[in-house]
Design goal:
Blueprint: H1 7-16, H2 24-37, H3 44-56, H4 65-78, H5 82-94, H6 107-112, E1 115-116, E2 119-120, H7 124-136, H8 143-152, H9 169-181, H10 189-199, H11 219-231, H12 238-245, H13 264-275
Antiparallel strand pairs: 1-2
Length: about 280
């Protein structure tokens, strides 16, 4: 049975004419977006992630304003770390809003005040989302933040703590998106080396696990690896995309691994961006 197309895909094909055909990734992204639209979200971080994913999947900014209004009521108390403030900024940009002035608060400044000696916050996620947010807001990421990442790279990528520990696929992929958004060229040895390292972490099915090796495919790490290669100017391998789509369930949401369903929300928001052919930041 052929998959049912959502309204965005169907409308695109109607205007494109009979020769057009939606790709499997496009269909999967539309199904993921439809699932996201149908669920209720309670936290600010969830709302921010969903807004970015829906925008990546082609939803117009006008369709995101209800979710963004909910996010704004939660954001002041949520955006107290570099990563959390960064997510609010990314959601604002995706929704077509100015993150410098949201309800009287400058969320870009909330990101910037966490900067100390090349670091934002305490983790790779703080660093990545902060750098992505500043870039998305149209400002320059300090060169010291990029120098810190050049020095901190481990055997191939980065660890969760950035400055020490075991390199992992998700931390590395997000930081690659951030480095590219900050203006580092795809020809830079940093992006070339980290993308090569990520490519070696795929399992035999073409999927990725945060810890690499032969471990089971995880939706989040696979989606982030796909986006990281895109950020590095490389075309993600088709078997990686197939592995990601294999985790999509009948209702459009994705499961975390072949044997673990939760957290479907986190799996789906990361995957929707990747399956839409995008990378962070999304505008």
């Amino acid at each position: 049975m052929k998959p049912r197309l959502g309204p965005v895909v169907a409308l695109t094909l109607a205007f494109a004419g009979p020769a057009a055909a939606a790709s499997p990734d496009t269909i999967a992204a539309e199904r993921a977006a439809a699932w996201l639209e149908g669920i209720s979200l309670s936290s600010a971080g969830q709302q921010a992630d969903a807004i970015v994913a829906l925008r990546a999947a082609g939803r117009p900014t006008s369709a995101l304003q209800g979710r963004f209004s909910t996010l704004l009521t939660l954001a002041p108390d949520y955006a107290v770390t570099a990563g959390a403030a960064g997510k609010v900024v990314l959601a604002a940009v995706a929704a077509g809003r100015d993150p410098h002035a949201l309800g009287g608060i400058n969320y870009v400044d909330r990101v910037k005040i966490t900067y100390r000696a090349g670091r934002y916050g305490t983790t790779a996620y703080d660093q990545a989302y902060a750098m992505l947010a500043i870039s998305a807001a149209g400002e320059l990421v300090p060169s010291g933040a990029i120098r810190t990442l050049r020095r901190a790279r481990g055997a191939g990528g980065w660890s969760f703590s950035v400055l020490g520990g075991t390199d992992d696929v998700s931390a590395t992929g997000l930081l690659m998106e951030a480095v590219r958004a900050a203006g580092v060229s795809t020809s830079d040895p940093l992006l070339r080396a980290t993308s090569t390292w990520i490519g070696t972490r795929a399992n035999s099915k073409g999927g990725f696990n945060i810890n690499g090796g032969r471990r089971p495919t995880e939706a989040n790490s696979t989606a982030i690896a796909i986006r990281a290669w895109r950020a590095a100017g490389r075309k993600p391998l088709s078997r990686w995309r197939v592995a990601l789509r294999s985790l999509q369930e009948g209702d459009g949401g994705l499961r975390f691994t072949p044997t673990i369903r939760e957290s479907r929300l986190l799996a789906t928001v990361d995957a929707a961006v990747a399956m839409s052919g995008k990378r962070l930041p999304v505008s």
